[in-house]
Amino acid sequence: MNIKKFGAKHLLNTVGAFLIAAPALVMAAATPGEKAPEFSEVDAAGKTHNLADYKGQWLVLEWFNKDCPYVKKHYGSGNMQALQEKYTGQDINWLTVISSAKGKQGYLEPAQALEVAESHNLHASAPFLLDSDGSMGRAYGAKTTPHMFIINPEGQVVYAGAIDDNDSANPAVIADSANYVAAALDASMAGDAIAVASSRAYGCSVKY
Amino acid sequence: MLTRTLPNKTFYRSLLWLVYFCAAVSVSQAQAQDTASGDHVRVRWLAPEQFGPATETIGFYFDVDPGWHVYWRNAGDSGAAPRFDFVGASGEVGEIQWPSPVRLPIEHLTNLGYEDDVAYLFSVTPDAPRMELVVNLEWLVCKVDCIPGYGNMSLSREVADKAQWLPQDLALRDRFAAQIPDAATPDNFPWAVQRVSAGAEQGTLQLELTAANGGSLVSPPEIFPLDGGLLTAKAPQVEQSGNTILYTFERVPGAPLLPAASPTTGFVISDGTRAWQLDNLEIQTASVSVPLAVDGSQPLWLLILAAIAGGAILNLMPCVFPVLSIKLFGLMGPGTSAQERVKSGVLYGAGVLVTFALLGGLLLALRAGGAAIGWGFQLQSAPVVLALILLFWLMALSFSGVYEFGHRLMNLAGHSRGGSFATGVLAVFVAAPCTGPFMGAALGAATLLPTASAMAIFIGLGIGLALPFVLLCLFPVLLQRLPQPGPWMETLRQFLAFPLYATVIWLLWVLGRLVGEDGWLLGSLVMLGVVLALWLAQHLQRFGKLFAWLSVLAVIVLGLSGANFLQEQRAQPVAAARTTAEGWQPYDRIAIGEALTRGQGVFIDYTAAWCITCQVNKKLVLDTDEVAALFAKNKVYLVRADWTDQNPVITRALAELGRNSVPVYAWYAPGEKSPVLLPQILQTSMIEALFASETE
């Protein structure tokens, strides 16, 4: 009887593991040290962006949802735009991605997205990439807004994770936070190794 | 971490004054600060109406709307833990204590936190006539969408001779206090951590627990990682076999193990009613796990070549030698044609290969089933050992000419096809405890490799074992070099009985180690019974003969079931109970880890009663006064990992070293996390060399 019980349990475990594993197969991830997943997305202005377009150049990816308090923390304070402005000024590409599905929080139609880009004073290299089917977000394993990735000119991910080391929603903490993205980009530009290449991405869940 | 270091006492006093002042100016405002609230959350104090002089555990009680949740210290894949920023206190304030959380699957993510309500607790010790606290709070409440909340709460209660709680508040406090994890100690923690390892498989981390005291494991406890930067919050994959539970966590992509030199991590474990915290568990990394031996990058053909070489060397081992000599002896007998020799050779080879294939299949099937076993396991079974004792005893008696049966057995073994096949089977079984160095590495690899490759290694071993004999049969030229049959054969046969007697004695000793002193008695009585029955059979008439033969059968059946019974009686962990020689500790992963962290050198002797090489090394090297003094002088932590019984923990430790046989001698120099493996044949000078290089 025990054996039978164990067998049934084992079967359930196996089935359970498969069910858990199945979405994981769909949910890939951009991993520091590995090649960045391909993507092909249309931005709010109708232009298509592929990973291949950025070969030989640095690229920062940022996941965005205008209603997320953590996005508001970094946009309301001007912190994110300042970073965008600083690094696009150094010929680093910066793409801001919206993976919210239609009907979910943060979803924007192209026209709305252009307005939000305007009102948020977005300084990215393109108006928002509209990934409403979530394909790009899932390929990268984007979990939160903001979730940040840095891709080097060889097409490898060199940083994945949070924007900084303070997961408070309070904009007042930004001044005292260590910005992982800026640190990684500055180190790379100076030819140094990146000290922190991975961190727990804090924020709101991406609304796939 | 989240509670800020409190300013000095002068600051408290002035702050206290300020608090009094504010309270006096606006009582209503101070009372309003008794609580805080935001969207979907109401926060209030969980504190006594009146404090006593002693330390009191109080808390922030969060009442959360249905469907919404707040967070644990590690919030999981998204979200954030609440923050409690104490800006003033008239007393000592401890760290925030976090009740053990639940997993909250939120769409594609998993968060760690609390639904409905929770109390974040901390201890305070008053040192003023009133207990005053001023705290800035920040929290995040989420359903799918998240809403941050901010608040400012103050507490002002009288301090008198005795604490007075509202009963319902005290009950709430106690309910959550019971969920605060205790630091796990061997006394209070019902499991034992066998290992935490970042496997060869990138992106996972495994934690293995065993139930202490053979405790039942109806449902495996829930485990939550403390470090959200290293592990995702997704429920780990749980595999349970016997009293062992293996949790496989998913790592945050690219997250490094920190600190790089000796990475550690921590967990909270909850059985639903109680919780324990394990801090700074050492993470074994893949590079530590597979030191000198085989790793996956070695090409398969090299492994198979090593397996063939290892198998060939087995022919020279004392356990195999007697069996092969019986066989060769048979082939040298008069009237054996070249054709028969070829046939014998082929059949012997087939016997060896089929047995290896079957054993390989069995091992792989068991491996697939999750059973942790290893090579030599057939000698961990008392009935199998007793059966071998009888077999060798009968063979030895017949070699000595005590009984004619020997000639028939010889005829059987020497001339019939089945005989050659059986010899092959026998050769494999008795060769097991004599695994040579090559065989150890190859078998170690076999336990780790994919099924097809592992099977190839088994077959390789078989080919190696069979090869010399088969060659001898295929090329009669080699056989003709052997002397012609003659009276010397009788002498040789009698002489060959002695290695068999020696084997019987050794197997009796193994039996004794397996089932205790009764093993000797049982084994000897069965041997006596068999000899007596044989003698009777020789001297009795027809029915008497039949009776004698039936007695032999009865003795054997009784003996085997007796051995089985004795072993089951001792099913308790024998290895642990078995006292080790002075200074040697039984295998305990945690103790070894502690010794390594202390910077102590660690020497592990992986041994088993049925391993002759192990016993020889023990007597000639390890247990000598000279070596003992050397170990003592260098304060080495000595571990004797006894693998006589099926001990999955030691089997796994061996597998991590890339080995699946004993002896293995692992030396961890002080401060080193990866071991050096010593040769299987030890010499005192090798131990001396360990310390000589150290002083340089």
Automatic annotation (TrEMBL), chain A:
Domain Thioredoxin, chain residue ranges per copy: 30-186
Keyword Signal: yes
InterPro entries: AhpC/TSA (IPR000866), PRX-like1 (IPR047262), Thioredoxin-like_sf (IPR036249), Thioredoxin_domain (IPR013766)
GO molecular function, one term: oxidoreductase activity
Pfam families: AhpC-TSA
Residues of the signal peptide: 1-28
Keywords: Signal
PANTHER family: OS07G0260300 PROTEIN (PTHR43640), THIOREDOXIN-DEPENDENT PEROXIREDOXIN (PTHR43640:SF1)
Protein name per the record: Thioredoxin family protein
Organism: Microbulbifer pacificus
TrEMBL record, chain B:
GO biological process terms held by the UniProt record: cell redox homeostasis
Keywords in alphabetical order: Cytochrome c-type biogenesis, Membrane, Signal, Transmembrane, Transmembrane helix
SUPFAM superfamilies per record: Thioredoxin-like
Record-annotated membrane-spanning stretches: 300-324, 345-364, 384-403, 424-449, 455-479, 491-512, 518-537, 546-566
Segments forming domain Thiol:disulfide interchange protein DsbD N-terminal: 44-153
Xref: InterPro entries: Cyt_c_assmbl_TM_dom (IPR003834), DsbD_gamma (IPR035671), DsbDN (IPR028250), Thioredoxin-like_sf (IPR036249)
Domain Cytochrome C biogenesis protein transmembrane: 301-508
Compartment(s): Membrane
Main location: membrane
Keyword Oxidoreductase among UniProt keywords: no
GO MF term set: protein-disulfide reductase activity
Signal peptide: 1-32
Mode of membrane association: Multi-pass membrane protein
CDD domains hit by this protein: DsbDgamma
UniProt protein name: Protein-disulfide reductase DsbD family protein
Species of origin: Microbulbifer pacificus
Lineage: Bacteria, Pseudomonadati, Pseudomonadota, Gammaproteobacteria, Cellvibrionales
